[in-house]
Amino acid sequence: MGRLSFGGRSTTIGPYRGWMVDLVSLASENNILSILPSAYYWVLEQHSLGSLFDGIPRPDGTVASLSSLDLRRCVVAREKLLSKQFQQGYTVGWVRWESEFSDNCTNSVQCRRQRGLILTAFLAIRSDNVAFRILCSTIALCECDFVLLAHQTLPRAIHAKVKLAKAPIRNTISGTSLASPPPMSSPLAKRQRTENASIKRSERWLDDGNVVLQAGNTQFRVHWSILALHSSVFRDMQGLPQPPDQPTVDDCPIVELSGDDPEDVEHILKALYIPKFHCQTTLPLAVVGAFIRLGRKYDFKDLLDSAVARIMSEFPATLKEYDTLIQLGGCMTIDRHRGWTIDSISLASENNILSALPCAYYRALNQNGLGTLFDGIPRNDGTLASLSSPDLRKCVVAREKLLSKQMQEGYTFGWTREASGDCTELELCRLARERLPRAFSDKPFLDAFSTASPDCLAPEYKLCRACTRHAIESMAAGRRKMWEELPAIFDLPPWGELKNDI
After folding, report:
1. Which InterPro entries match (predicted)?
2. Which has more pLDDT, 418 or 146?
3. Does residue 285 lie in a domain region?
4. pLDDT for 320-361, tens place per residue?
């Protein structure tokens, strides 16, 4: 049995795997709100982001899992806690470069250097709480430095000092309850079919057509020859004998396209009859999606290939192509709408365009905050562009890995960890290198493939020539290494094995 203190009162609870997650659910469902800040924090301290998404197996084989609202709160709050604890005036703000020292400090230079080591190292292992605690217990400051006490009590201090709420929390909320986040709509949501809706003719109704395609309650009169020319499926279908009771319209057989959206069919037929339509510089993602979905299903190979090429141009599989994309401000082969990156991820995931996913995931993380990824992005028509649960998990867990890796030695900003062996301004370069991690600690900034050159830094970040050259070479090598590992960071096979299964 364990004794746990919430709000100044102790309670005895029998601990088991997942018990804290169950406690959060119990408190949340019953509006026992005063214990939630502490309970959320304990959950974050004990469990990784991946395990919070997957749930914690209980001893009886069932799974303790958070509601979508509690999961969102924990994930978003974790990022705030990781940043806030290093800000001036909070738990570990003492490690900052500009923090004061004790009047009795015997070696301010050494203490400042050690503080910088802690801050830089933290940014490289932020996804591993245990490693950070070990780090803090092994880096010593001078005996007289007053920050030693805070240093020794770091894990407890975080809980005690971080401001989780601006006002006292009551255990009941009159007339209201904890609201759930808005429901996630399926990406590029299809309109619901109405069983009793009357049949209507589309604009694609050609009087000399000899076959009628029906999707939902919409019919299209077109030509077998055009369909067969572009699709092996329709070519084979045309050669099949028609049953005597085959329904017809104006003596044209009706071919029902089960499960296909009428808008998708309209886009395909428009491309077949008006070739310049799909040769435009940019196309709406809805059109690209139609080419991919129906291109796979009916083997419209040319349309499928052109659509996949558009996706790959926006989410390339090589660092060189990605750099070109960023330099051009985006490839612009797909019309932008609010949430288009999220919708592109869903389209690629659902249709096994796997080689586009690492870059697409990264761009989604680079463009959106965690709260936005959980809540979804309102499209222009009022629907929500939202990630599937597996894609959301991949993005959230990978973000922590990326934020850590980009600061590790051998990666993009690893040059901040050590000077060049030929450094001519050791102290000035050290101070310059410390300022960059400090900026990252204030607000997590994902820039794993930064193209900013260290020789163009602001004056306070200036390095000597040797360190500048070292930083440029280190950043270039680090970016390449990060790109090679990008699929693995998102739990995907290596680039060489990441094939489009279309």
Report:
1. BTB/POZ_dom, SKP1/BTB/POZ_sf
2. 418
3. no
4. 999 999 888 777 899 999 999 999 999 999 999 999 999 999
What's the whole-number mean pLDDT along residues 15-28? 90
460 and 423 fall within a common domain: yes
Q: In the chain, how many domains are there?
A: 4
CA dihedral 230, 236, 238, 244 (to 10 degrees): -160
Q: Residue 272 contacts by C-beta under 8 Å, 6 or more apart in sequence?
A: 222, 226, 227, 230, 300
User: What DSSP assignment string belongs to 65-111?
Assistant: ---HHHHHHHHHHHHHHHHHTTSTTSTTGGGSTT----TT-S-HHHH
Q: How far is CA 285 from CA 129, 307, 338, 343, 462, in A?
A: 41, 9, 11, 8, 44
DSSP 3-state of 337:
coil
Distances (CA, A) of 426 to 60, 292, 309, 354: 59, 56, 49, 46
CA pair distance 227, 269, nearest whole angstrom: 9
pLDDT at 497 exceeding the cut of 90: yes
Residue 65, both tokens: 């899992």
pLDDT for res 166: 32
Average pLDDT over residues 35-42: 90
Evaluate whether residue 440 is within a structural domain: yes
Which token pair is 464? 């000597």
pLDDT digits (tens, 9 = 90+) for 445-485: 788 888 777 666 656 667 888 888 888 899 899 999 999 99
CATH number at residue 244: 3.30.710.10
Among 303, 292, 288, CA closest to 340: 288
In order, the DSSP letters of 137-160 are HHS---TT-THHHHHHTHHHHHHH
Residue 479 lies in a domain: yes
Cα distances (Å, whole numbers) of residue 51 to 13, 56, 64, 202: 22, 6, 10, 49
Among residues 236, 258, 280, the one where a domain terminates is 258
Nearest to 222 by CA among 246, 239, 205, 247: 205
The pTM score is 0.78
Establish if 181 belongs to a structural domain.
Answer: no
Q: Which residue would you say has higher pLDDT here, 131 or 112?
A: 112
Residue type, 92: V
Instruction: Report pLDDT for 459.
Output: 65
Question: Taking Cα atoms as reference points, which of 152, 122, 158, 132 lies closest to residue 37?
Answer: 158
Boundary of a domain, candidates 12, 40, 66: 66
Q: Could you list the residue range(s) of the whole structural domain that residue 240 is in?
A: 196-258
